[in-house]
Structure formats: structure tokens, C-alpha cells
């Protein structure tokens, strides 16, 4: 039996977020994910999401969810929708996040290798800013999300460690400083490259990412109380083991291409 790839594509993320917040998606973006919009309709009716956290842990594959399901308890217990998603090729971080937040394939947005140029095409963030939303990105220094979305009228917080990033994101939420907040965590990816995807160290970081999402959901219930608020757990690509017990990604194989996204709509 040939490898099976998920049918929902990462390019559908941008229009999904735009539809949830009721502003026009980037013009070329793929269609939104219908079931996510239906879930939001069930929670909020026709009203827009007012605050949204997009949490981007790096390199968390769907096969990890299948094999180490208990490690994901933090995100499962604090989300209401699970979507199998297909990434894009080459399955490396700048290419995948560019497709996630432009809504288009690599041949359209132009990042087709492990390079980090500033995107010149329309992104989710441009669309949100045009609609009057306050947007912020929180990321570690040197990573793709801290580079490819620069030169927009939005706030950037580029910090040394994932722990610093998480603290800054929490502060922004507590101050109600933005409507759309992107938080990137590299810790699983960095650890699995050095130690392998299933090493004890890597699995601890995997669980840390799920638990981080849970912590932010609890915070959101407090600081976004009374708002129509949503969150999403959105990895970029998967990973696989290579010779020497190391971890890698970038291939057109199910281990690298199949990921899983989680969405959550908070009670008001």
C-alpha cells in the first residue's frame, strides 16, 4: 500500500484564521477548513473571533501523535478539534511557515529551500493589519518566523529562548496588547535534530510543547474572559530518524509531510 498523505493542506490555515476573525483572507490563499468554521459557528454564531493565539511548535509529526498519544494530553484536554494536515515540499521550516501564513504553495510565495528571505507576497498578517487588527509575532532569534514576516506594521518580539518567548507572549495576553498573536517554539525541533525524534530528551520537549499550549489555554480563559477567543496548535512539518540516531526532515515522505493541528474555541 502506498504512503497515505493527509488531504487538508497547511495552505488552508491562513484563510481559516481570516474567516474566524471575519476579515478578508489573502487574495490567493487556499480555501479555509470547513469543519473549523463550523465549530466556531457552533460556539460563537456569526460573530467574529476577537482574540486568537497561533501556537507554532516546530517539527511535531502526526506519527508522534499516533505513537506517543499520552504526551499530547495537554493539547488534547485544552482543544476541541483535531485536524490531520499535510505540509508542503520541501518540508523545511521557512517553506512550511510561508505556506501556512500566505495560504499558497512554495512555487507561488517563492521560498523553495531552507532560506529565510522576507516574503513580498500578501500574508495573513498583511490582511489582518489591513482590517485594523493588532498583530504580534514572538519568536526566537534567527528562526524562520522571526525573519520571513518582517517589514510589516506589526509588533515583533525576537528573544533568546523559547522560555523567554513564552513569558513575553503571556505578558502580551495579560496586557491585551494584540488581537492576533503568533508564538513560535523551536525546542522539540532543536532537540530531535541532536538526539533523534524518539529520544528521552526529545519526547520530554514534545510533552513540554503540549503542556505549554495547556498553560496558555488556562491563561486565555482568565485574561480573555468575556471575549470571543480561539487558539490553535499548528506545527509546520514532521520529522524522521536518520543514520546515527539523529533527526531530520525535508523529504516527501509521510513522516515529514503528515502533521496534526488542533483548534480550540474558549467559552465566553
Automatic annotation (TrEMBL):
UniProt keyword list: Signal
Domain of life assignment: Bacteria
Signal peptide annotation: 1-29
Gene3D superfamilies in UniProt: Alkaline Phosphatase, subunit A
Keyword Nucleotide-binding: no
SUPFAM superfamilies the record matches: Alkaline phosphatase-like
Family matches, as Pfam families: Phosphodiest
InterPro entries reported for this sequence: Alkaline_phosphatase_core_sf, Phosphodiest/P_Trfase
Protein name: Alkaline phosphatase family protein
Organism: Candidatus Alectryocaccomicrobium excrementavium
Amino acid at each position: 500500500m502506498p504512503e497515505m498523505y493527509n488531504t487538508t493542506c497547511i495552505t488552508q490555515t491562513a484563510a481559516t484564521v481570516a474567516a474566524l476573525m471575519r476579515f478578508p483572507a489573502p487574495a490567493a490563499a487556499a480555501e479555509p477548513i470547513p469543519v473549523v468554521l463550523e465549530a466556531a459557528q457552533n460556539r460563537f454564531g456569526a460573530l467574529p473571533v476577537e482574540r486568537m493565539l497561533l501556537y507554532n511548535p516546530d517539527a511535531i509529526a502526526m506519527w508522534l501523535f499516533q505513537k506517543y498519544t499520552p504526551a499530547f494530553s495537554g493539547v488534547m484536554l485544552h482543544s476541541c478539534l483535531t485536524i490531520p494536515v499535510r505540509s508542503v515540499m520541501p518540508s523545511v521550516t521557512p517553506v512550511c511557515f510561508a505556506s501556512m501564513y500566505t495560504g499558497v504553495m512554495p512555487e507561488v510565495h517563492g521560498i523553495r529551500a531552507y532560506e529565510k528571505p522576507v516574503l513580498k507576497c500578501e500574508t495573513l498578517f498583511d490582511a489582518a493589519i489591513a482590517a485594523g487588527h493588532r498583530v504580534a509575532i514572538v519568536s526566537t532569534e534567527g528562526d524562520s518566523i522571526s525573519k520571513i514576516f518582517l517589514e510589516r506594521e506589526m509588533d515583533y518580539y525576537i528573544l533568546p529562548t523559547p522560555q523567554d518567548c513564552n513569558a513575553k507572549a503571556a505578558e502580551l495576553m495579560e496586557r491585551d496588547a494584540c488581537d492576533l498573536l503568533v508564538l513560535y517554539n523551536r525546542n522539540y525541533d532543536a532537540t530531535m535534530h541532536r538526539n533523534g525524534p524518539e529520544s528521552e530528551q526529545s519526547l520530554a520537549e514534545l510533552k513540554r510543547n503540549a503542556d505549554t499550549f495547556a498553560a496558555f489555554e488556562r491563561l486565555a480563559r482568565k485574561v480573555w474572559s468575556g471575549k470571543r477567543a480561539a487558539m490553535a496548535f499548528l506545527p509546520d512539518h514532521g520529522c524522521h530518524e536518520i543514520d546515527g540516531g539523529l533527526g531530520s526532515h525535508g523529504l516527501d515522505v509521510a513522516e515529514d509531510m503528515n502533521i496534526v493541528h488542533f483548534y480550540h474555541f474558549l467559552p465566553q
